[in-house]
Each structure stands twice: as structure tokens, then as C-alpha cells.
Design a protein that fits this description.
Blueprint (H helix, E strand, L loop, with lengths): L6 E3 L2 E5 L2 H4 L8 E2 L7 H11 L2 E4 L3 E4 L6 E2 L5 E3 L4 E4 L4 E3 L2 E3 L3 E3 L6 E3 L3 E3 L3 E2 L15 E2 L3 E3 L3 E2 L8 H8 L4 E3 L21 E2 L10 E3 L7 E5 L13 E5 L2 E3 L2 E2 L2 E6 L6 E5 L3 E3 L3 E2 L2 E6 L6 E2 L4 E2 L1
Parallel strand pairs: 4-7, 5-8, 6-9, 7-10, 8-11, 9-12, 10-13, 11-14, 12-15, 13-16, 14-17, 16-18, 20-23, 21-25, 22-26, 23-27, 24-28, 25-29
Antiparallel strand pairs: 1-27, 2-26, 3-19, 30-31
């Protein structure tokens, strides 16, 4: 979470999704996907589709007023179902993109979309390449291939060559216009029907969450994830329900999700969402692992 603007997400579900790393299979329950029938197989298929994504916005993703965002890990997709993608500032984002709407890149300078490929069912709108004083040696980077079903548009001033200069920066080719039908099979398809599931919270007991408002005193907090031998549920996951996650007036706040040495599929539900104020500088939520041989204190419900 990087930026200077207040971030508020509600309601929220933070999934510490280690299934693709550790070979675990996530059970869709207690989620329900309303875009398909209540068939166990179809529900599970939708869940597995969604788990491919590290950034997902059914109706759009907009990174406009925040500071530069850096998520350079190329593992995990980024996508929308029908919405647009709007990027400003020099964001660095890794992994494949599948966008159901249009794409607007407001500032090309130092923007890096890493790993590729990139697929949009809409059009791409670009700012002026010359106005931003970019050249072929710019640090901007766009890893392809890029498959663009719609148009690519730039400034309309006479002699402006933005579109061609941008296409020249894309590695592995651009498939657009008459060439869109030649988009490589290795490029992921856009799924315009994929959505976020609903969940029934009846019977859930919400624990006190993380609320840090103490002025300028750096704090470190932990969420302890127990091993299977201590806690298990019918879904094969560790589910934790907290009422809020609020941080303000902090520098270098850290929240560690402390896993068993072998890891564990963990789902953290935040009832009132994330509320990270612009006075919280450099907050970090990070997954860490207990060392081999560590003991879990059942009474304290924490790793020793």
C-alpha cells in the first residue's frame, strides 16, 4: 500500500492466498458466486478463476491520485470484468492484465507494466509522449504481447507520434485492429462474467481489529496463524474475522501475518474495511513464517 491519498476499502476480505505456492486447494465456501448457478462444481470453478488475480476490480481499477504504486511481482493476474483501467503516475505493476473495458494511461513517464501479457476488450488512450519529454531510452517499460480489441488513441496535434512511439516500447508485439484476431493463445482471455462472491456472515463473532492512531510512534502488530493441529474448520482454511483495520499518524507501521513454518491458506475478513489515512507513512502488511521447530502457545494463541 503506497501512496499519499487516504485509502478506504469497505467491506473487505484480505486473502493470504498461498495455494499457488504451496499446492493447497481453496474451498469456495462460505462464498457464493451469484453469476453462476448454485452448483458445487461451478461455484468452485469461479473461485479458482478469481484466485488467479492479485488485483481485481469487477467494475474497474483506478489508480489516479495516489503516489506511485509498486507491486512488481509478476505472479498473479490484474483485471476487470467489464470496467476500465486508469493509471496515473509512475506505477510499477507486474503480472498479466485482462481488462474488460478501456485503458487510460495518464502518465507514461517511468510507468512499468512488467511480465505481460496484456489483453483489453476496449481501447487504449495515451497522453502526449513528446509533452512528457520521453525518448526510446525512457525508463518506461511495457512487457507484452499486447492484445487490444479497440483503438489506440493519442493527442490529435499535427505531427504527434505518441501511438507509434508507445507501440515501439512494447515487447513481444502488439495485436490490434486487423491483427487482433492473431492474438497469441498464450494471452489470457478476459472473463466479463467473473465477479466478487457474496458471503453470509450470520453467526460470525467479530474480534477487535487493528486500530493504530498513536502519533508518530512506530508500531508492529501480529496476526498469529495457528497450525492445523491447533485449529481447523470445514473449509480447510484458517479464517479470522476482525471488525476494522485503521491506521493514522504513523510512520513505518507494520502488520505481520505470522504463518506456521509450512504456511497455511488463511482468509482475513475485515467487517468495516481498511481505513489508512494519509498521515500513515509507509504502512506495510506482510506475510512471514515461524521458524522450523517453533511452538504455538495454545493459551496465548500465538507463536512463541
Amino acid at each position: 500500500m503506497v501512496g499519499t491519498k487516504k485509502i478506504r476499502w469497505s467491506p473487505c476480505f484480505l486473502a493470504i492466498l498461498l495455494s499457488y505456492v504451496l499446492g493447497h486447494t481453496a474451498d469456495v465456501r462460505p462464498f457464493v458466486f451469484e453469476n453462476v448457478t448454485d452448483d458445487a462444481v461451478l461455484q468452485q470453478q469461479e473461485w479458482e478463476k478469481l484466485m488467479k488475480y492479485k488485483l481485481w476490480g469487477t467494475y474497474g481499477m483506478y489508480f489516479t491520485n495516489e503516489g506511485a504504486i509498486s507491486i512488481e511481482d509478476t505472479t498473479g493476474y490484474n483485471g476487470t470484468a467489464t470496467g476500465n483501467l486508469n493509471l496515473a503516475n509512475g506505477h510499477h505493476i507486474g503480472g498479466p492484465f485482462t481488462i474488460g473495458g478501456d485503458v487510460e494511461l495518464q502518465n507514461l513517464y517511468d510507468m512499468q507494466l512488467l511480465g505481460g501479457p496484456f489483453h483489453t476488450l476496449g481501447s487504449v488512450k495515451l497522453p502526449s509522449w513528446q509533452h512528457q519529454n520521453l525518448s526510446d531510452t525512457s525508463s518506461a517499460r511495457f512487457d507484452g504481447p499486447y492484445c487490444i480489441k479497440g483503438d489506440i488513441t493519442g493527442p490529435t496535434a499535427a505531427g504527434d507520434n505518441t501511438v507509434n512511439l508507445w507501440k515501439a516500447k512494447i515487447s513481444n508485439g502488439v495485436y490490434q485492429g486487423d491483427d487482433y484476431s492473431k492474438c497469441p493463445e498464450t494471452v489470457p482471455e478476459v472473463d466479463p462474467l467473473l465477479s466478487i462472491p457474496t458471503v453470509d456472515y450470520s453467526g460470525v463473532t467479530w474480534e477487535k481489529g487493528v486500530i493504530i492512531t498513536e502519533y508518530w510512534h512506530p508500531q508492529v502488530q501480529f496476526i498469529h496463524v495457528p497450525p492445523d493441529s491447533v485449529y481447523t474448520n470445514e473449509y480447510g482454511t484458517y479464517d479470522k474475522y476482525i471488525d476494522s483495520l485503521k491506521v493514522s499518524a504513523q510512520t513505518n507501521f507494520k502488520l505481520y501475518v505470522l504463518m506456521p513454518p509450512e504456511g497455511r491458506l488463511t482468509r482475513i475478513f475485515v467487517r468495516d474495511g481498511f481505513d489508512i489515512d494519509n498521515s500513515a507513512h509507509n504502512p506495510r502488511i506482510q506475510v512471514v513464517y515461524a521458524p522450523e521447530g517453533a511452538k504455538f502457545d495454545r493459551k496465548a494463541f500465538a507463536w512463541d
